[in-house]
Design a protein that fits this description.
two-stranded antiparallel ribbon, about 35% helix, single chain, about 190 residues, about 35% strand, alpha+beta, 6 helices
Amino acid sequence: MKKITLLIVAFISLTTATAQIRVGKAVLPYEENFGETDLKLNGAGMREMLWIDLYAGGLYLQKKSKDPRAILDADETMAIKLNIVSGFVTQKKMIKAVQDGFKKATFGNTKALDERINKFINFFNEPIVKNDIFDIVYVKGKGVQAFKNGKELGVIEGRDFKYALFKIWLGDEPASEGIKNGMLGLQ
């Protein structure tokens, strides 16, 4: 009986250990569940600046895709996980990066989204430290839910908002080509 118990514990430990991927110093799970929808890791990459790893990003979809336009256009539950791996990522820098990202994603025309962008930026009202994890989840029919370290920060409605937000990482002018290619499974 003890041998069977040990085998079961070993199997569970082995299964748990292989259910994640290492991206630099970050560890991302292969599967997530949001809005009662199972999502699988499409791909992951690292945002770097001057050879310093800043954060790992993973894209979670219901079915794998390498087509950024199809992903952006899709009206289905999906998520981006950001795992902060550097103390260089601060609250102030994150807010500036998000603002710049929305400007690029909308070609400078944020007017229709300004109120929701400001609400999203308020989700970063607490200090950001190394090992913080942000989940940005588009739930079909609900909107974008944001989480920090598992705690829900709020919901922002609108598929147009999701499109612009996800375009920060998956658009033609992404935050980083490396993270975009990683999320699309191209690396």
